[in-house]
Write a structure and sequence with these properties.
The chain has about 260 residues and is α/β, with parallel strands linked by helices. Helices cover about 40% and strands about 15% of the residues. It has an 8-stranded parallel barrel, surrounded by 5 helices. Helix 8 links the parallel strand 6 and strand 7. Helix 1 runs parallel beside helix 2. It is globular, with a radius of gyration of 17 Å. The mean pLDDT is about 90. The structure holds phosphoenolpyruvate. The site of phosphoenolpyruvate has 14 residues, from strand 8.
Amino acid sequence: MKQSVMTIVGNWKMNGLADSLGGLVSDLIDGLQEGPAATEVVLCPPATLIERVARAVEGHRVAVGGQDCHAQASGAFTGDVSAPMLADAGASWVILGHSERRQAHGESDADVRAKVEAALKAGLKPIVCIGETLAEREAGRAVEVVASLSDDLNDAAFAVAYEPVWAIGTGQTPTLDQIAEIHTAVRRAIVKRLGQGAGATPILYGGSVNAANAGDILGVEGVDGALVGGASLKAPDFLAIIAAGEAARVAVTGQQ
Ligand code: PEP
């Protein structure tokens, strides 16, 4: 089953300067004017741009998110940004546990759990990233790895992004059957852990989604949207992904 709203999230990673507002953001807003209304579009620029992007998208159906937050609300944590700070700057979502943070900053599941709690407390909607490494997939452990994440969740007010680590920024994607298998396993795990409320938690796919493959991936049963890295930096590509998501939603739900 698909959710009645598709969620398409752009993760700009460490890309974007004030110039990006003139081209990328304004082109996106223009492209969305005639576009589908039943898609939740979220832009996650670097922290330095959150306030400016939030101002630029005001009045349009685009939300803004952070790419990480600290588990504490304030304190002696040089260089970090807290969840209330993101909310204060205009964010309503935050990506947490991205594999680039787990790998480059050593974030553990426990760290991610603490961040999820901090985000919820600040009124942000966390997008919790999970995904197996290539070694874990080759060892037949992909389902086990993604399902274990549910042990760290206490609240259903979040979105999950299934992002196989080996697919991020590589141009490689799992087969549609592999994506369906993992999304089914994640849904089962979060409903088991959190109850029926988690039946409405969006489960996004992320990892080398582009304008060409978005239609197939977003059409997979159980895929409620996409977390998009590289392709979210090009307005025509990101708009094509949003349109593909909308077409997939209409095809499955029959609702315009
Ligand atoms: C990501 O950064 O979450 C991501 C999925 O990147 P890409 O789309 O570039 O693979």
